[in-house]
Specification:
Blueprint (H helix, E strand, L loop, with lengths): L2 E6 L3 H16 L3 E2 L8 E6 L4 H20 L4 E6 H5 L1 H7 L5 E3 L7 H11 L3 E3 L19 E5 L1 E2 L10 H5 L3 E2 L2 H13 L4 E5 L16 H9 L6 E5 L8 H9 L6 E3 L7 H6 L6 H14 L4 E8 L6 H14 L3 E6 L17 H24 L7 E7 L5 E5 L4 E4 L9 E9 L4 E5 L2
Parallel strand pairs: 1-2, 1-3, 3-4, 4-5, 5-6, 7-10, 10-11, 12-13, 13-14, 17-19
Antiparallel strand pairs: 8-9, 15-16, 15-18, 16-17, 18-19
Helix pairs in contact: 8-9, 12-13
Bound molecules: iron/sulfur cluster (SF4).
């Protein structure tokens, strides 16, 4: 049996796309390989959001050259956002890459493989736009939890972000199709569903019969046997009171909200085209906290955006101190060609950016640690997701925190009660309650 190996960079949407690729290759009679050296097809699903990921990708493709020399029949396929964005560079710098396919061409991969074998020439297939999603054609990696995308693309054009250029305009998937997919997954044993979109909060506005994200969540929450619903990512400008209410009222909608802040300074937020202010953001947090019991909040923050000064950065620190996020994903600004921010003058030194970054990370790590400490002694319900480090089981609380504990593998995919006994910045430890 021929084998494939898929490597995925980037976000959950890319992970889902890789699950679609797995499904397509399985259907063609291939099987997954654990080792890159053993496979007949390598697919790299790329991310274009940050320069670092892109550079890592180039190093990675470069490393495949020797394998290709040893195995000339090996097919190297590059898909995803960097393939969509920089096909010329990949074609020029890596002529031994066999297939380049874009974010709107995933379902074509089996035919591209056949075509490549027939014509024996490099293939580059990039559609500039289109809707390529069939929700019944993916292989969810975990039997007990699954992603479901609800919208593809983004209309927001935050000035630093390449996503609207590589994923296209926002297109919502019809609610009936999403609900049908969720029902089918639950009937197959799935207990947790993560709804995906670049901005889930603007879901449904483009449909012939518009539906809000809260209405969709409400419907999905009524599916019998669906224990946990998560969603990602929320844009603050579109987070409605209606959404806060539905999360507060439905016990199977998890009380964790990932709400990217990006910056605390109104000047920088405006330059980022985020369309909310620091005050708006803090008000949303206040509304969430006053309505949703035990809510947890995570965020994304960029430091060193062009034009950011120390007093702008202080506003970011101020929001972090006021909100006390459970966790923050922090990044130094990464210039992306083709975005609006790309032409802005960047006068801050690398050294300064790194110092701010370190300061922010240290502050947030301390807050995460203190927030996790508050959970010690509690006995939450945990979904056991797999093995973590030191051969311990790894489970997830409702609030999205991860806990490590001793237990047997047959608990994976089940709910257990864990007494929390220890806390670090990024994880908890505990014991199963008998
Ligand atoms: S909301 Fe902004 S940051 Fe998020 S994908 Fe859209 S443009 Fe990018």
């Amino acid at each position: 049996m021929k084998k494939y190996y898929i490597e995925t960079f980037g976000c959950q949407m890319n992970e889902f796309d890789s699950e679609r690729i797995e499904y397509l290759l399985d259907k063609e009679g291939y099987s997954a390989s654990e080792k890159i050296e053993d496979c007949d097809i390598i697919v790299i699903n790329t991310c274009a959001v940050r320069e670092k990921a892109e550079n890592k990708l180039y190093g990675h493709i470069g490393n495949l050259k020797n394998l290709k020399i040893l195995k000339p029949d090996l097919l190297i396929c590059i898909g995803g956002c960097t393939a969509q964005n920089l096909k010329e560079k990949i074609l020029k710098d890596f002529p031994y890459v066999d297939i380049i396919f874009g974010t709107h061409n995933i379902s074509q991969l089996p035919e591209l493989i056949l075509k490549k074998k027939e014509i024996n020439k490099n293939i580059c297939e990039i559609r500039e736009k289109g809707f390529d999603y069939a929700l019944d054609r993916f292989r969810h990696t975990f039997p007990f939890k699954s992603y479901i995308p609800i919208s593809i693309g983004c209309n927001n054009f935050c000035s630093y972000c390449i996503v609207p250029y590589v994923r296209g305009k926002e297109i919502s998937i019809k609610p009936g199709k999403i609900i049908e997919t969720a029902q089918k997954l639950v009937s197959e044993g799935v207990v947790e569903i993560m709804l995906l979109g670049q901005n889930v909060n603007s879901y449904g506005k483009d449909l012939d019969n518009p539906v809000t994200f809260s209405q969709l969540l409400d419907k999905i929450s009524q599916i019998d046997g669906l224990k946990r619903i998560r969603f990602m990512t929320s844009h603050p400008k579109d987070l409605s009171a209606e959404l806060i209410n539905v999360i507060a009222e439905k016990p199977n909608i998890m009380s964790h909200i990932h709400l990217p802040l990006q910056a605390g300074s109104n000047k920088i937020l405006e330059m980022m085209n985020r369309r909310y202010t620091k005050e708006d953001y803090l008000e949303i947090i206040h509304n969430i906290r006053s309505r949703i019991k035990d809510s947890s909040l995570t965020t994304d923050i960029i430091t060193g955006f062009p034009g950011e000064k120390r007093d702008d950065f202080e506003h970011t620190l101020d929001v972090v101190k006021k909100v006390r996020f459970n966790r923050a994903f922090t990044f130094i600004y990464s210039k992306r060609d083709g975005t609006a921010a790309c032409s802005l003058e960047d006068s801050i030194s690398k050294k300064e950016k790194k110092e701010w970054f370190k300061e922010l990370v240290a502050l947030q790590n301390q807050i995460s640690f203190e927030e996790n400490q508050k959970l010690i002694g509690r006995c939450p319900e945990v979904l056991v997701e797999g093995k973590g480090s030191k051969n311990l089981l790894e489970g997830r609380l409702e609030n999205n925190s991860v806990v490590n504990f001793e237990g047997s593998n047959n608990l994976i995919g089940r709910f257990v009660k864990i007494k929390i006994t220890g806390a670090k910045s990024f994880y908890l430890t505990g014991n199963i309650l008998k």
